[in-house]
Amino acid sequence: MSATIVIGPYSEADQTALRDAFSPIFIDAPAALSDLDAAVREATTAVAFKGHNAFDGAAMDLLPNLGLIANFGVGYDAIDVAAADARGIKVTNTPDVLNDDVADLAVAMLLMRGREMEHASKWARSGEWKKKGEYRLNRKVSGGKAGIVGLGRIGREIADRLAAFKMDIHYFARSEKETPGWTFHADPVSLAREVDYLIVALVGGPDTANFVSAEVIEALGPRGIVVNISRGSTVDESALLDALEQDRIYGAALDVFVGEPDIDQRFYALENTVIQPHQGSGTVETRAAMSKLQRDNVSAFHASEALLTPVN
User: Fold this and answer.
1) Rounded Cα distance, 84 and 55, in Å
2) What mean pLDDT do residues 61-80 have?
3) Which residues are catalytic?
4) What is the pTM of this model?
5) Least packed by Cβ within 10 Å: which of 7, 42, 124, 272?
6) Where does residue 18 rank: exposed (0-12), middle (13-18), buried (19+ CB within 10 A)?
């Protein structure tokens, strides 16, 4: 079989499955490719890739016969797809299998912020409930207006869930979609101005950097909540932090951050923000499905069969 290199922080179970399937070489990051023998690099035709370290053209050039980069995850912004195209390298990802988990977490985080579940739990656990009585009244979530920024696979799953919470669904996308009567907005500012909750479900990468801008955040207003389960780069974090610290929006619920896991320390002081450790797809079942889909793409490539989930 053609040589396979595995790059990134895989679990023991995933490492075992990859080893059984491909007898690969394991390295931590693309930067370690230069440490491999030239013969190994020349023999490599496929890479199973996981993580956020940049996989750029220079790294690809170290593997002159590379034909596939199989990404673990639906987001592939760490991979320079244009560079892969220029070199005739195919890229795959692992969509769909994680949609439900990510959408579930988005809704859960919105509920956590609106109903102050994290703070209420601390109130009960600390004994304040017994000493001081019931927790303060918080905010009704059902029946509000939800704005989805990016109505792709995951965005639609989120919208479907929020519709069940009796919400009026609004959305931004590159073009109007076929929906059950949801309201389309051609720009994110008009969307934010109209809704109570702004849920970001964009792909990452330079095209969406700071897409939720200071102007969008300002348009959301003092009752607005930002929920981000996409990439930290899609939101202007500095503008978001300023708005949160000055109570110009009601709060945020964030699973992703710029520079994670070394996130901006200002977030830790905020009582109006739910923080999660980028665990949108973090269930045993979904991570196993993602791993299998990645391996299936590598297997299809080695067998000269059609790739299951090509990006380019």
Assistant:
1) 10
2) 96
3) 231, 260, 278
4) 0.92
5) 124
6) buried
